[in-house]
Sequence to fold (84 residues):
Amino acid sequence: MKRATYSWKVVGDLVLVVDEDQGRSVTNDAERVVRDLAGHLEGRRLLYRDSMGRWDELVVEEGRFAGFAPGSAADQAACEGMVE
Fold:
């Protein structure tokens, strides 16, 4: 299956990723997404909007994908309107 297709941008201390719902999902291609964006992650959290519209976190430790964490209500509110 084709790799995940996504758009992304840096906003302050966040890297925001939007799943474009083509190929693999960001969720299922998380390791590759983290590798792709590694140069932009220093000191930043990596949040992604899934195909359902929810913001969750790809946890990164020592530059590698380390798991998922649910986005908080504050994350949802902070990310709202930051991406199209």
